[in-house]
């Protein structure tokens, strides 16, 4: 399969008064053509920072890409100049933001905002641009697009605004779409409409999607592959089924057990105790050690090696080590 | 077993005047009972009036019409002294653990303030002892008492909010979206804590949230709201296995289930359109503009609140035998309805 994007050993830090926050600490993943990769994790795990860095949106200072590479079409985006990035943004890679209330400019009509990107990147007549904008509004399910073009964002509801944001992101037909919590601010019945729309645009435009979310239900619905992030690292990746049915990392398992399911009746939820570590001084070993029920002595001291369970399923946990398997059940202390 | 009723809400209305002679009907005639020791869940999407109900019951808003009886007393007709003692029995946990704690007060000040106001303990030392005890009950330690709210994570702050609500030993707690600002793994911690406290102290909860899977997990009975009205009320298992109102069905099918196999095989009903404005709600049934089954009667009559089976109430003309012509007017009813 063709790789659209290849991220290797990415490190991103932010300089603050309190010291250096190591938000992303060595992240490696790739995205195949036409697939949806979900990056899942709790707030502060670095999932949004990772995705903004692909768009070249890390403010510098205070942010800095310390190490690593983001390869897109044979070009390293971490080394691209501002001018080069401007040519990529919108045309090759687009982004949808969480909050449709703040992602749009309140002083410009929706039509102006739709056409803006198109005219910046392509030489088109006004009429041609308008036609394309109307077609795109039609695609994302906005009724009566000719009239709606002339309206301002405040005249749209939350769900409709998110459709506009999606239309703006897709108007130059990008190859890669990054959606950062695209439905978190929406109500469930509207979320269902938007998720439905994602399926449709992927079918019609063949766009590859990186979906950033914390909602495992949304992931189960639209992702092909999943990367689970914790404290600035990807601790497990796999296909949707591998992660949901054969999760290996205790954090992934914990995450899956801590959400109630509508279709089942559980007596008690099993929460993950404690809170994520402080990224000013992240632990040397596995960052999940303090919350892990299977923590061993080694976990605290050395970061786990990379284990391959199948071609697509990778995990970073000492429990995968053959030596841990030998002693499993006897000395693995359950806290 | 007939349980004791502790809260009785009858035809509660809360209208806000928003100028230009317009009224926003946030809550428009809602009735339900809450029994002692149970968890009653109120769910609905944003703007459906669920939080307004909580705040009106608490007395933070005056009602526009209807009544709220708490232990037999109408809470909107209490005099000052009675209100004072009513507050001791009913407390509230708020949604945003960042905004609901005073950043200039230490944790012990936050928790002991209600005790001070109500003169519960003789002196500061006794109050402090109680603060320590409460902190331990909610899973924090006594060392935390002298710290300020900003030193805590969201989940810990919510625990402080819970400790404050428990400070007066209330019987009834209104929890307004207590976990929606928290991370997934921390949500479960707080929900388990709420359940543990309920078992230990026999608390009654009114649990208000938009996340139906969590509400179903924690509640004994659930009321589903839409645009200021209660549309369905039943026991939580029943609501999932046999939803009657088209809105409840749509809401259930809109919630993604974290299991790929289930997700792929589920039939779903995607609602068209969006929530109408509560300033100018549709005539008759407020859901009719999005309902795939809407019929002629829906625009003309407000559906009555009726008992369809044991402990199962619904407000929908589909279940009204007086209406003869039940043909849908949109022609959209061919969409699959999960059952």
From TrEMBL, chain A:
Q: Where would you find this protein in the cell?
A: Cell membrane
Q: What are the record keywords, sorted?
A: ATP-binding, Cell membrane, Membrane, Nucleotide-binding, Transport
- Highest taxon listed in the record's lineage: Bacteria
Q: How does it sit in the membrane?
A: Peripheral membrane protein
Query: Which Gene Ontology MF annotations are present?
Result: ATP binding; ATP hydrolysis activity
Cellular component GO terms, alphabetical: plasma membrane
Biological processes annotated in GO: peptide transport
Q: What Pfam families does the record tag this protein with?
A: ABC_tran, oligo_HPY
- UniProt cross-references to InterPro entries, sorted A to Z: AAA+_ATPase (IPR003593), ABC_Ni/Peptide_Import (IPR050388), ABC_transporter-like_ATP-bd (IPR003439), ABC_transporter-like_CS (IPR017871), Oligopep_ABC_C (IPR013563), P-loop_NTPase (IPR027417)
- Please give the Gene3D superfamilies that the UniProt record associates with this protein: P-loop containing nucleotide triphosphate hydrolases (3.40.50.300)
Give all residue intervals belonging to the ABC transporter domain.
Answer: 7-256
Sequence similarity: Belongs to the ABC transporter superfamily.
The entry's protein name is ABC transporter ATP-binding protein
Taxonomic classification, please? Bacteria, Bacillati, Bacillota, Bacilli, Bacillales
Automatic annotation (TrEMBL), chain B:
Q: Which Gene Ontology molecular function entries are recorded, alphabetically?
A: ATP binding; ATP hydrolysis activity
Family matches, as PROSITE patterns = ABC_TRANSPORTER_1 (PS00211), ABC_TRANSPORTER_2 (PS50893)
**SMART domains from the xrefs?**
AAA
Entry superkingdom: Bacteria
Key word Transport present: yes
ABC transporter domain span: 7-252
Gene Ontology annotations of biological process type: peptide transport; transmembrane transport
The protein's matches in InterPro entries, at most eight in alphabetical order, are given as: AAA+_ATPase, ABC_transp_ATP-bind, ABC_transporter-like_ATP-bd, ABC_transporter-like_CS, Oligopep_ABC_C, P-loop_NTPase
Keyword annotations for this protein?
ATP-binding, Nucleotide-binding, Transport
PANTHER family for the chain: D,D-DIPEPTIDE TRANSPORT ATP-BINDING PROTEIN DDPF-RELATED, TRANSPORT ATP-BINDING PROTEIN
Q: Which family does it belong to?
A: Belongs to the ABC transporter superfamily.
Which protein are we looking at?
Answer: ATP-binding cassette domain-containing protein
- From what organism does this protein derive? Terrihalobacillus insolitus
